[in-house]
Design a protein that fits this description.
By secondary structure, the protein is mainly α. The protein has 2 domains: 2-120; 141-213, no CATH class. The chain has helices spanning 2-11, 17-27, 40-52, 61-70, 74-78, 83-92, 103-114, 127-137, 141-155, 161-176, 189-204, 206-213. The longest helix has 16 residues, at 161-176. This is HD domain-containing protein.
Length: 215
């Protein structure tokens, strides 16, 4: 059902068919070797979330689409460290985008990708950066826990089950807790509600039990 909802959302973008074919035929498959938390399913979710945030914003949907589909592209080839920089570089260096965008538009999209990480601590320079940042947050509490546990199993297989849970709880506290570094740049009731839920789970200890379900 979720996949059908995402596909329906993408069909409403009014993205040129050849651009969408390039994005989903040439770019999206390059995420196949990424860790489960940053693979094709995550990118499709960010695409769907980005589309939902467009209402009332004066932006070019084509650029929103490209930013979303490239935003983590550096991870499969270069890893998670500094991936906002490697992903932006891959976008800048892709000559195919010249078919649809000016050099200035390409630079704006690259800057949006550079600005998208919650841990950057700075406000994105454009609406495109704010959109992808908010879309990438995707503060669905259950999904965040599931992705966090999957990332831990993939990157720290030596940890015991209890250690995986402790790692996930600490990461979620650091990012989403009352003193966490996540900032919501756009009005998004769904993300605010999800953030409130995560903070409640942290305060009550319920988060550990949720993590164990995905251990």
């Amino acid at each position: 059902m979720q996949e059908k909802r995402e596909q329906k959302g993408l069909s409403l973008w009014q993205i040129p068919e050849d651009l969408r074919a390039y994005g989903e035929g040439e770019i999206l498959p390059r995420y196949a070797n990424a860790d489960p938390a940053h693979g094709p399913a995550h990118v499709r979710q960010v695409l769907a979330n980005s589309r939902e945030l467009l209402e009332g914003l004066e932006v070019d949907p084509r650029m929103v689409y490209v930013v979303a589909i490239y935003h983590d592209l550096g991870i499969p080839s270069f890893g998670r460290k500094d991936h906002e920089k490697t992903s932006a570089r891959l976008l800048r260096e892709d000559p195919a985008l010249g078919r649809w965008f000016s050099a200035e538009e390409v630079e704006t999209m690259a800057q949006a990708i550079e600005d998208h990480r919650a841990s950057s601590g700075r406000e994105p320079r454009s609406l495109y950066g704010k959109i992808v940042s908010e879309a990438d947050r995707d503060i669905d509490p259950e999904r965040i826990v599931r992705r966090c546990m999957a990332y831990g199993r993939s990157h720290f297989p030596q940890l015991t089950g209890e250690e995986q849970v402790a790692r996930a709880v600490e990461h979620i506290r650091e990012k989403y807790g009352e003193e966490g570094y996540v900032t919501l740049w756009l009005h998004c009731p769904r993300n605010q509600a999800g953030l409130d839920t995560l903070r409640r789970w942290l305060a009550t200890g319920e988060l550990e039990e949720v993590c164990k379900r995905y251990g």
